[in-house]
Structure formats: C-alpha cells, structure tokens
Amino acid sequence: MKAFSKDTYSKRRDILKKNVESGIIVLMGNQESSVNFKDNWYPFRQDSTFLYYIGIDIPDVMAIIDVDSGEEVLFGDDLSIDHIVWTGPQPTVQELASEVGISKSLPLSKVEEYIKSASGRNVHILPPYRPENTVKLQSWLGKVAPSEELIRAVVKQRSIKSKEEVAEIDKAVTISAQMHLEIIKNARPGMKEHELVGMVQGTAVGAGGTLAYPAIITVNGQILHNHYYGNTLKEGDMVLCDTGAEASSHYAGDLTRTFPVSKQFTSEQRDLYQIVLDSQNAAIDMLKPGVKFKDVHLTACAKLVDGLKTIGLMKGDTAEAVDAGAHAMFFQCGLGHLMGLDVHDMEDLGEQFVGYDEPKSTQFGLKSLRLGKELEAGNIVTVEPGIYIIPELIDLWGKEKKFDQFINYDKLNDFRDFGGIRIEDDFVIDEEGHTLLGEPLAKEIKDIEAIREASFS
Amino acid sequence: MKAFSKDTYSKRRDILKKNVESGIIVLMGNQESSVNFKDNWYPFRQDSTFLYYIGIDIPDVMAIIDVDSGEEVLFGDDLSIDHIVWTGPQPTVQELASEVGISKSLPLSKVEEYIKSASGRNVHILPPYRPENTVKLQSWLGKVAPSEELIRAVVKQRSIKSKEEVAEIDKAVTISAQMHLEIIKNARPGMKEHELVGMVQGTAVGAGGTLAYPAIITVNGQILHNHYYGNTLKEGDMVLCDTGAEASSHYAGDLTRTFPVSKQFTSEQRDLYQIVLDSQNAAIDMLKPGVKFKDVHLTACAKLVDGLKTIGLMKGDTAEAVDAGAHAMFFQCGLGHLMGLDVHDMEDLGEQFVGYDEPKSTQFGLKSLRLGKELEAGNIVTVEPGIYIIPELIDLWGKEKKFDQFINYDKLNDFRDFGGIRIEDDFVIDEEGHTLLGEPLAKEIKDIEAIREASFS
C-alpha cells in the first residue's frame, strides 16, 4: 500500500520536526467522498501531504506529530469482525503505523482529547480543502487558522524531489505519454471527444493508477477550462489533449499535445504550431538551478510574440509588447507549475508559499502564472506555452482598441475560429540543467503527421 | 445538457406540488468535489433528485418550489466576462431555467433571504449526503431536519419509471453489458485486475457517461466490499465482475458476471455457479406487480439451500434453514435493490421510505436486503443472488457451531478458499410481469465458456 520504505517516511518526519520550532502538527487524512448518495464513493484519494509524511493510503486515518517530545501518533479505528466479513482481513491501525515507523496508535475518538492536551502550545494545521476536514478542525480548534510555519516547512521539503520520487514521476509521465500516443493514433473524423477520453482514462486506470486531473480533450482548445466532451471530430479540426496519469504511487504526469484530425495540419495550423513549439524550446533551454521561472515564462512570451509578428498577428517591439502584456491576447495563462504528488504541486498550501517569494504580478496573463521563483535542483516543472484565439477576448479588447500598437486586430479577426494549441512536457531540474521526464512523445510537426499518416493505413 | 423535454420537468414538479401539502421545497444541487486540492475536481455529479425535477446538470445551482403560490425559482450566478474568457460563452441562469420551464431566477446570494421570507411555513428539505450541503442548510435553517412528507412524495414519483426513463436505463444496461463482454473476452492469466478495470472504465467513459459505482473486479469475489485491484489473474481463478455504466442521462446499469480465468470452470466452480444461476432464475420468474420483493429474496435463498444440499454443503429442512437464516453463511446480503438515477435508487432518502413499508428484519443476511416491499409496475430492480465462501465467517460461526444442523462445516472447510460467485441482471416490472433490460449478456455456463474458448483462439 505504501510507495516507499519505512525509513523514508521516518526521515521525512524527522526533517519536518527540525523545521517546525515547537508544538504539535496535525496531519489530516482524507475520507471517502460521496457521489450521489453517502455510500457511493468517488475513487478514494489520500491527501498528498499525508501521503508524503505518513504514506498510509486508506481513508479515515490521521496523524499528530509532537515536535517537542518527538511523539508520533496514528489515529484510526480497527475493524470489527462484523466488518471483516465484508472487507476480508485488514491490518490493524497499529500494524499500519508500524509499517511506516510510527510506534503509537489511538482510536479516532481520542483526537480531540489529544489536541486539547496540547492546550497552550502551538497546534499547527494545513489549510483544509475538503469541507468535512474544515468542519472537524473547526470543532476541535474553534477556528481554522493554518500555520504559516508548517506550510513553509512542508513546501521546503516537498519542493525538492528525491531520486525515488523522480523515478515515480518518470513512470507517471511515461504512462501519460502512452495515453497521448494512443489517441494520436486512434482519433478519427466522426468520433466524439468522449471516445478519446475513454481511451486515456482506460489506459491510466489499466496501468494501476488513475487520471491526475480531469482530461481536457477538445476540438475547442481555446477554451482553457474545458471539460465538455460532446463535440464530434471533423476534418480540419485540431484536437488539444491535456491529460496525465497519476501512478499507483500517486505521483502525477501532465502532458499536452495538439494534433490534426486530418492526417496533416493545415498551413495556418502549421504556422501557429511551430511558433508554440519554438517558444517551448526556448523556455526549456533556460531551465536550470538559479533561473527564475518568471523569466523563463517571459522568454517564452517573447518568443511567441516574435513568431506572431512573422505572420502579421502582432507588431511593434517584442520586449515592449511583453512588458505591456499584449501577448496575453494569445497566451492568457502561465508557462507552467511545480508537479509532484499533486499535478499543481501543493496548490492547497497556497501559491504565495509554493510558487513565489515575492508578490505576484497582477497583470492579465502574468497573474495566472503559478510559479515565479528561482528554480532549484530537485524541482519538477511543466513547460506549456500555447496560443489560444478567444473570440470573446478579441471582442472585449478590440472594442477598446487595447494594445492596438501590438495586436493586428484586422488580421486576428480572420483567425477568430482558429481554436487553440498547447504543447507541454515535464522536466526535473538537476545540477546539469534539466532532464525530460518520461518516454519522449512526438511533438515536431513531421513526427506528429507521420504517426497520423501511419495510423490511417 | 438536459435529458428530457421542458414539459417532462414541469409535469414532474406539478405532481410534486400536489403531493406536498404546503410550504416551500428546497432542492439542493451539488457543487464540485475536490480531490487533492480545491480546484482539482472529481467528475461532477449532479444530485439525482435535482436532476429528476430540474434537469440542470451543472454545479452551483439550486431550486426552491413554493407549494402554496406555485412559484419556482432557480438560484445560480451568471458568469462575468472574465470567466467567459476561460470557459467560452455559457447560457445565463435565466436561460437555463427557461429551458426546464422555470420562469424565475435569482443569484445564490438571495437564497437565505428567500428561505427566511418563508418563515413560519414548512421548509421541506431532503437529507443531505455531501458535507458542504449540510453546512449550508445548517446555516440557513439552524438545523438540518429532513421532511418526511417531501421524502415520501419524491420516493412515490421516482419509484415509478416513465417509458423515457426506462429507455435511458435500457441504454445504460446495454453499455454495461458491453463492458462485461469486453473483459470476459480479454481477461488472461497473468493480467492484473486493474487492467480489466481500465477496460470497463474506458468503455463507460467512451460511451459518453461514466461508471455508475466503483467497479468490483476481483479474483476474491467472496470479499463483498472489494475495491482492491492489485491481484494477478491465475489459471483456476474466477473473476467476479460487478460493474455498470451511468449513461450520459445519468441513469444507471448494474450487472454482475463471474467467469473463469481458464477457458473453463472447474467442476466445483461449475456446481456452485449452476446453483446461483438456478436461484437467480427462480427469483426472476416471480417478478411481477403485487409480489413482495422480500418473498422473492427468500425464494432465491431457498433455491440456494436446495442446491447447496445436493453437494453436501448444507443439510436439513430448506424452509427451516432459510427461516433461521442459516443460508447467510453463503449469501450474506440482499437479492437486489431499486435502480434508476442512482444505482441504489434514492439510497440518500432512507431505506425505510424507499425499500420498506414495514420494519426491516434484523436477522443477519435479511438486514442487508435493501428492498422488501411489494413490487409495482414501473419499478426497476436488480436480481443478484450469490454464493460467497468467507473464511472469517466459517471460523466465527464454526467456533460456536452456529446452525450446525443446517451447515456441514467439515465439507465447507474444504471449500474455504473457493471464492465467490454472483450473477446479476436488471429488470423493469411491467403489467405483464417483468422485462430484462439491456442487450442480453451470456450467463449460462456453456455460453460463458464458449466466449472464453473463442477469445483465446
């Protein structure tokens, strides 16, 4: 059930105890989540920080770490024989605890008493994102006030992946690449988007995990938050596929490819695709320790502007356009994010702690960049530039002639039904610079077209 | 987005208003549910009663029906242009309301005021099963006290399926049958259970829906609550597969088949399989309006006992054995349940209202029967007898020689590693008796073996 050795978890907790000055640390596990009635459950997902420090992948357990005394307690309830008839034999809570190096266990009914006995000392909690955990913390503590000290300690540890973590992420990305390859081969005119979603979901679950996030598989790639799968694929469309596997260890992969429903891209699609790919390559080249990811983002934006100028969609000085934020007509979001046990790693802990060490820009476009700070060896990042032609944004900005010194609105209107393109890969930052994670997945125009061509014959 | 016509929803609400005497009816929609951070969501599932009366399949809406004035209000918030840049153009809340025959809409911020304005009148709510809805109802009403009058009115309507509902359930069951057929054909020694789960999930999602409940696909069919998929299929094992599709309209299918990993059943497997199949057929023969489902269950149990006596696992008088509950050594659960928008239809509303009109038995086995009452035309039921050899139960009862006048413990011990068998189909009760739902799926021993045999060549 656990991904790593007993020692791994003990050592992680020992470091945590050093990074938090005093008090007790309450690590909430997750419960089952109900779909349409109480006992019909979504697939169980343990909390990622709980997985990182405790490693126990079942519902209804939680842990408390006493920083001062060093005591570690796993809370959970053993099954009665009546339950075991339905579930088969299960390890006891104490057995589970021992497997991850925790010597003490108590029933859940003792949590409140244990927390109350720490009265007067710091009780460190993380921000809850599930309502039932909010309710519990509220009832035990009277208020839900996450501990910045604990958040910073967790972020510090989880941001730097060990070799064994990188190996798990590499597996997840390889499964993700297989998911993409399957649909690049099998997508056909006349199919519904949900048929492709079924393929990638089947592959992810078949590999022993699940999807790391709801798949975006759409002929409307310009709609960034798109989980509608009812469109029919037509000749001339592109499919934007943003999907990634969660491996059985719960580490995530996150890849995006955009490919033509026909055997080949149209000439316009080819032009814009190459601009996105050039932007991605420029960004990837910069990845190394000590470089600010915000600067990588801005370089990718500049490269997009350079390309868009060559085909007449943008104009003027590239640096000035990026500085003003004019590229955000085409690229409204961020270049990438940290990845790990969460696809947006530690998003629950707060972007100001995870992605930034200075205040984030409020400029449209830049304000959606999740990661701005300096890269360190052991970080895992995605690099995912895109071009999204959003008719509503053309109309909104066009009306006020916003950035018309940089944007060629006349020409842009010819592209208003173009759609969207994104290309995304995952990298580990290492001392030498960076390494691509997972089996490489085709992304050059000629390679994508070759796969499509071969698959039709 | 909606499954049926505007008129269908208006008429359903008109009937509901007649069946509730006075006051206002608050129908909670569902929100998104977070997986591992707030904005990483499980696939959205609307509440089934909300779908039934309102039909709007998006998060963050709810409805209030004033029984006395007849007013119907949909509550929800329109997207701002900032949102539309990310989501593409969306219908307004008022447009959504109009599509289902509701003339008035208000923002969510007005719910509390609307409810407070009904002060002194009955405010009817259903039992919440998601914590965020519990929290909301608590804050608006001060307490969460579900209305028995509303529950009874909803159960009365939802229990009897219209032709168009039956057609949707038929579709869901046909997809479910395809899911089963695929794994009966493709299961091979050496595969992991999760590879089969990937196939059925891919098929369900590919068809435009999802799974109606977490699949049970296991070589340990005797573990009734089994969602572990890590075992390897071996020659001589049986795979118990209990899985069903939720169609895009959200109606469920629910089928179970048990098949050999080898091309054929062993002689022991064949004996027990035929006993379960005979029991299922005896039960199916009884299905018609006016028959108590509890009696169908007891007939199925008696048939199991008859069969188990022929191979020496049980002994004594069949009727006495069933009356005492001795068959529950082999069949610990209920014969079936209602099915509709929920796989266990309306389980959130309470079994005492949905499945029974008299107190339920507390006997081990019978107490797990979800449906006891008289069948009516328009009911949808599952029929799913089984034989489960549970070592822990043999040891528990064997120690106290429980029912040893009916159970041959010596012989049973030879079967302790046998596993489990279940066979399940879905039926609509009609005036003529009953009709099988979905495309028929092989279940005779010779038919299952023929599919296995053919698939290997």
From TrEMBL, chains A, B:
Record InterPro entries: Aminopep_P_N, Creatin/AminoP/Spt16_N, Creatinase/aminopeptidase-like, Pept_M24, X-Pro_dipept-like
Q: What is its EC number?
A: 3.4.11.9
> In its UniProt record, which GO terms are filed under biological process?
proteolysis
Q: CDD domains given for it?
A: Prolidase
Which GO terms fall under molecular function for this chain's record? manganese ion binding; metalloaminopeptidase activity
Q: Report the SMART domains cross-referenced here.
A: AMP_N
Domain named Aminopeptidase P N-terminal is located at 4-134
Q: Which Pfam families match?
A: AMP_N, Peptidase_M24
Its GO CC terms?
cytosol
Q: Which metal ions or organic cofactors does this protein require, according to UniProt?
A: Mn(2+)
Write the record's keywords in alphabetical order, separated by commas. Aminopeptidase, Hydrolase, Manganese, Metal-binding, Protease
Reaction(s) this enzyme catalyzes, per UniProt? Release of any N-terminal amino acid, including proline, that is linked to proline, even from a dipeptide or tripeptide
Q: Which residues form the signal peptide?
A: none
Q: Which family does it belong to?
A: Belongs to the peptidase M24B family.
What name does this protein carry? Xaa-Pro aminopeptidase
Species source reads: Fulvivirga sediminis
